[in-house]
What does this fold into?
Amino acid sequence: MSKQINVALIGNPNTGKTSVFNQLTGLNQKVGNYPGITVEKKEGICKLPRGVKAHIIDLPGTYSLNTTSLDESVAVELLLNKNDKDHPDVAIVISDVENLKRNLLLFTQIKDLKIPTILVINMADRMVRKGITLDIELMEKKLDTKIALVSTRKKTGIERLKELIADYKNLSIAPNVDTTVIAPEYFKSLQETFPNENLHKLWLVITQDVNFMPLEKKLIKDTSSFNTKSKSELKRLQQKETIKRYQFINSILKETYKVDVNAAKGLKATLDKILTHKIFGYLIFFVVLLTIFQAIYDWSSIPMDFIDETFVSASEWVKDSFPPGMLTNLIAEGILSGIGGIVIFIPQIAFLFLFISLLEESGYMSRVVFLMDRVMRPFGLSGKSIVPLISGTACAIPAVMATRTIENWKERLITILVTPFTTCSARLPVYLIIIALVIPEGRFLGLGYQAMTLMLLYLIGFGAAILSAMVLNKVLKIKSRTFFVMEMPNYKLPLIKNVAYTVWEKTKSFVFGAGKIILAISIILWFLGSNGFTEKYENADSIIEHRIQTEGLSVFNQESIANNLEAYKIALNDSIAKKVYTIGPEQVKDSIHRLDKELFEKAKHQEIASFKLENSYIGNMGKAIEPMVRPLGYDWKIGIALITSFAAREVFVSTLATIYSVGSDEEHTIKNRMAAEMNANTNKPLFNLASGISLLLFYAFAMQCMSTLAIVKRETNSWKWPAAQLVFMSLFAYIVALVAYQILK
Amino acid sequence: MSTSIAHLKRGQKGVIREFPDDFLPIKLLELGCLPGNEVELVQVAPFKDPLYINVNGSHIAIRRSMALKIELDLIEDTPDV
It folds into this structure.
């Protein structure tokens, strides 16, 4: 392998850094995390002229090398640490032609580290419209570097940039600004103490809050021959340094940068007036949220149904075409349904990130934060938290992923932790069936009790999220930026390529990041549900066969078959009377007999399946936890459903269908069967008002979704937070459900 | 006339006064909040917080509590374009 050049892209946020990165690397990029922390690491490979290859790192956006967050300290550490394997041979500072003054501050700081530094002036396509003219040649001379004027939108200047990178050895590494003049004595003594170190680098190590190189910082502090300064003295020097740098930059821009003021005003001011307006601003944001919600709730159901059906038929195909046995079952029921359970989320994730990246790219997201900051602040949430919280009403998984846009770690963590409280669409089937069972159909002031209960559950979910955010805000001791400064970037038309990369990357990271955990748990759940350690499980077929021979089918199944046959007879006689068919009494009898046999076989299979589940590992677990769930008004059958719901909440319904040996998935049948179920402990209907409300509340609060846990693990880069979520939410759900049942019973 | 950023009306401008050295977060200084620079109040969010300002060509939003700290010399009769 030929030697690769290490290249670091660095720049202020909103300068189109990622667009430059995308144009340099194309699809040869990968996104991961820096080891041990949650900061995203983007890297890629770029082919340069003359057969040179460059390894490019897209560093987190930063306004300067004075870091205030973990993201920014990653950038500084890489630039300072020569031993890092990614330490750049050349740094590229990306700047925006409209904010050149501020962008150059960062440039001069990096240049002073004596790293070869190329300046990219991006968004060159906006120059004409904004009345900007540049003297690039003079600027190159003054800044002592090479400049590439780039437009990622028009795809110009990238080739020149590649040339410059390949040619990096010819770049000057002389510093731009002599900052020692702000405190000559101090810097002199510093340099004398550490004669081998770059002065500017020493200065950075001393002044940073984030302790990115503990050894060196300690070393400097402990050296007695050197007089350290107090914190406020250092800060004063930092301010002087900043002013000094701006003086330098202003003197250069005066000669090289001209802007025609009359051309500058316009679109931004007008759009800001509307989009951040007291009334219209909120109205527009509401419409945007509604559209997002519609997309992930409604539009994505079309591809989701298709995925669901595809996997079900694939699973059936496997069962039909391979010899029956453990392996076939593993593939058909364990692996295939596990993969199906991952793929099913892709439409929602893709839709949500399509919208989010459009909002981010266009510059609108900053206006959302501006509008929502005051409202969300008391809860310890960011203005941006509103998007995950609303998306969580469709599904918590894309919502948790969407928190990536929140820069502040504490606000992001709180959002991640509380989002699963919002009522996701997987809770809906559970709510609907239980509400139908236990809430009367009456109306109050024109509103149905059932509808009101459902609405109340949504409100409870949202309320739980907000309240727990408030509590977490008080409880979590995380050092984070205490002040709030946010740039309001220019409005831009989103680049389709950038949007596509985001959607692709998020989907990929879900499938391969969280997917393997989801698959593993699905297989474990499948194994526990379809294996048992007792003889009863092994001999389920013969036991049930014997029971049916001696006692007949279960009462419910007998009745259901009788009803079915009766209906069939009536329909058949009707058809004969209307002369649709012309068949004799023998044939009628024969066909009724055949249906009877068919229904009997089906019922037998259902009873075997029910018996098997009851005696499987999960069945035994359900029975084992019965003492725990009895005070909540549940029996062991609901206990089993609570455990299987862990795969996804809606599994509750299908598990009960299996346990009650109701074959069809038809809601009406399951509902009737559930209504008939008696609680063996109390001899009252199992699903009554008290136990029903208790179940509803349990499902509202409990953390019963392994996919959410998997994605939280991925997003927080640790098992600590998903584990905390699981324990606290489940405990809270248990207590609330317990209290509700004990009061209502 | 002396006032703070929080007291500006929309579209009004002022020049930042000298302030004590370790007064503002370094981040704000780097974004251009330095003595002598011009500030314009662009927009105020509902509940009067945060404030959207243009300082030294940087369009940024800051919270009211911070804006109250930054004193200005008001530029009178700001031309309304």
User: Anything to note?
Assistant: The two ends of chain B are 22 Å apart (CA to CA).
